[in-house]
Amino acid sequence: MIPDNSNYYYFWDLLGMAGLDKIKEPVKDHIKAFEKYFRASMKSNVPLLDRITRYIVSRKGKQMRPLFVFLSAGIAGGVNESTYRGASLVELLHTATLVHDDVVDDSNERRGFFSINALWKNKISVLVGDFLLSKGLLLSLDNDDFGLLKIVSNAVREMSEGELLQIEKARRMDVEEDIYYEIIRKKTASLIASCCACGAYSASGGDAVITENMRLFGEQVGMAFQIKDDLFDYQKINKTGKPSGIDIRDKKMTLPLIYLLHQSGRSERRHIINTVKNHGNDPGRVAGLVKMVTDSGGIDYAKGKMTEYRSKALSILEGFEPSDARRSMADLVIYTTEREK
Fold first, then answer.
1. DSSP states along 317-339
2. Dihedral of alpha carbons 230, 232, 233, 235, sign
3. Could you report the per-residue pLDDT of 240-288, keeping only the tens digit for each?
4. Can you give the residue ranges of every domain in the chain?
């Protein structure tokens, strides 16, 4: 049975703008200590590598991935040394994929900072990504953390599969709703699921049931998180005062757009697909398409699906013993789906 979530919304109202700091409270000392631990895990005798890895650490954002790891560990029995290694493994392997992604996408920025390839060019960036990948593998192997390595390696595999599936479907523009869910499960939800599974695995001594329940919890959160992210494209306002439509420009078939296609007749569908395929850089066509999505009820439909996944996540969380960590994790679920950016 899905629990009454009113208490979670009450906590969110109390948290306000300071929400994330309050959420971190049960594990704040671990998060602070993790910064040094993670920096040490990237240590190298090559001065150039050290300069680049220091730059990577300096760009840290909200530390959401380590937060999921440490809160999951707190729920499952308590943080220990292997929890730090699990969080480092997630960060090392995921950072490696981001460095490589920026090269593939020829991206000069990430979260408002210059990307590694913008500062040190592609060859060095690829080698840095390879270095981070190897450091993650060795961190696990040197400490016999085979369970943690399996969890994160599976997530990296799924992320790659999800990206390739999205590319394949974008070319043919034939994304059905079930395929969309499969793409975001692999691309986004698998990473959050691996964070939660690593935390639970480290704290429970590898208990399969606890680890799988936390993995499933993380997967539901990840699904809700990505749908929320997709909704931003129809709600963010750019300099012209209109929704940004970045996903449309990039030919990404997100849930609100898929819903519109299902509600449209044949000629309207052709117009929509033609706009996405050939007119993504036309502000007028994009604005018109965004309006069609909104008028069709696509935004409300996507919000409803996001809420369903969030409720499933909170329901799974209810199965664990009450604790400060569980309460903060519930607040984190709300934070990820009510955030404004």
1. HTTSPP-HHHHHHHHHHHHHHH-
2. positive
3. 344 555 677 777 788 999 999 888 888 888 888 888 877 767 778 888 8
4. 6-338
Name residues of the chain where pLDDT drops below 50. Answer: 1-17, 237-242
Distances (CA, A) of 42 to 36, 129, 130, 135, 267: 10, 11, 12, 7, 55
Q: Give me the architecture of the 6-338 domain, per CATH.
A: Orthogonal Bundle (1.10)
Neighbours of 2 (CB within 10 A): 10
CA-nearest of 229, 148, 233 to 183 is 229
**At residue 190, what are phi and psi to the nearest 5 degrees?**
-65, -35
DSSP string over 111-131:
TTEE-HHHHHHHHHHHHHHHH
CA pair distance 249, 310, nearest whole angstrom = 28
Q: Are 200 and 76 in contact (CB under 8 A)?
A: yes
DSSP secondary structure letters along 23-56 = HHGGGHHHHHHHHHHHHHHT--SSHHHHHHHHHH
Q: How far apart are CA 18 and CA 34, in angstroms?
A: 21
Residue-wise pLDDT for 292-318, tens only, equals 888 899 999 999 999 999 999 999 999
Element (H, E) at 73: helix 64-76
